[in-house]
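Deliverable D2.4 — example input (structure tokens):
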């Protein structure tokens, strides 16, 4: 699939079929993350693949009580990838300087995974709601990792169309004129 088609075709899928995502496709999705750019090529990310239904159904219980209804959909998902970064002295130095590159790095890698999944006709939904300490305990994450986001994956329950995966209509987007300016402010790009 052309990258622009994948960008246009991608949607936040929240209803999945019971079909498991094949290991070879999971590896392709993870390979897309591995190839992502990172600040100073540190590649300080780590991804936890969760495919045990007993664990997945507990993930929504780790979020703050008022947000559980937002993430309850993932209980039916066959796969969740937890995007983390590895704490290191260089990240602390960057944070002191006001640069949180590690968060951007993991986000770029997870975007690569999202587009790779879309290309493979696998639905995805980026989730930023999580209770880190409870999620850390559930997944037995080593202390050196901090969670950035979750990527919920699976084959869509609804049929896909030429316009979108799972047939989900496009949501409104701002125009380029609303989000882009030229270095000579006031001029449209």
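Example output (designed residues):
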């Amino acid at each position: 699939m052309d990258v622009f088609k994948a960008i246009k075709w991608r949607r936040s899928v929240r209803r999945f079929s019971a079909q498991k995502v094949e290991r070879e496709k999971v590896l392709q999705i993870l390979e897309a993350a591995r190839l992502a750019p990172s600040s100073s090529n540190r590649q300080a990310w780590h991804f936890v693949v969760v495919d045990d239904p007993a664990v997945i159904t507990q993930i929504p219980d780790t979020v703050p009580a008022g947000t559980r209804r937002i993430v309850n959909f993932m209980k039916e998902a066959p796969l969740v990838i937890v995007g983390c970064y590895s704490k290191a002295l260089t990240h602390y130095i960057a944070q002191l300087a006001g640069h949180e590159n590690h968060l951007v790095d993991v986000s770029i890698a997870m975007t690569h995974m999202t587009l790779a999944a879309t290309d493979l006709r696998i639905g995805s939904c980026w989730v930023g709601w999580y209770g880190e300490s409870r999620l850390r305990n559930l997944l037995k994450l080593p202390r050196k990792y901090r969670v950035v986001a979750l990527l919920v994956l699976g084959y869509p329950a609804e049929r896909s169309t030429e316009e979108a995966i799972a047939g989900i209509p496009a949501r409104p987007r701002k125009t380029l004129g609303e989000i882009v300016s030229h270095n000579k402010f006031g001029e449209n790009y």
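The mean pLDDT is 91.
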